[in-house]
Amino acid sequence: DLRKQARQLENELDLKLVSFSKLCTSYSSTRDGRRDRYSSDTTPLLNGSNQDRMFETMAVEIEQLLGKLTGINDKMAEYTNSAGVPSLNAALMHTLQRHRDILQDYTHEFHKTKANFLAIRERENLLGSVRKDIESYKSGSGVNNRRTELFLKEHEHLRNSDRLIEETISIAMATKENMTSQRGMLKSIQSKMNTLANRFPAVNSLIQRINLRKRRDSLILGGVIGICTILLLLYAFH
């Protein structure tokens, strides 16, 4: 009795899945035909509410049949595992495994077909919304289009101004960083020079003496030149 019920459900599922697959195929073909007609501006793209309702109804029916077949398989498994089963237990297990494989194949086929249908419908809905937006934009008045273009140009100008300001700020920050690093280098050099001067006071005093002698020599040379100039002037006037 359980096998007879399982076979009946399997036959119903087989017919339902064939019809379900044909529905999905016709849905895709209908969408392609409507897309071609839309390209010639004769009919809109999306008008498949009837097919959507049929899809939902058939999907519910197939899920119910799969649930019933799963219950029948579970009952057959309980029967094969119960006590008092005759020695044909191996044959019964083989039969049960066969029905489980059929259930698994039907379940896989149903989910695959359903996923394909949902993917096609989602893609077509997206394309339809995009085409509607494009059509609404094209059907807008010339004034609105002109205003939109002006707004877009103004937006582009603002973006260019922002980009130039950002570039100027980045250049100023880089210059500030360079000047800060140079000031740090000069301070480090000055501190090193002061450190050397403090470490070698004799050298510092020697440098100071050399500078004083240079100044003295310069004064003497200037005095000699001045005296010679005065004498030459006196000689020239006398």
Automatic annotation (TrEMBL):
Where, subcellularly, is it found? Answer: Golgi apparatus membrane
Q: What is any one of the record's Gene Ontology cellular component terms?
A: Golgi membrane
Q: Is Transmembrane helix a UniProt keyword of this protein?
A: yes
Asked whether the keyword tRNA processing is assigned, the reply is no
Q: Highest taxon of the source?
A: Eukaryota
| Membrane spanning stretches | 219-237
Q: Which residue ranges does the record annotate as region Disordered?
A: 28-47
Q: What is this protein called?
A: Golgi SNAP receptor complex member 1
Species of provenance: Poecile atricapillus
Q: What is its main location?
A: Golgi
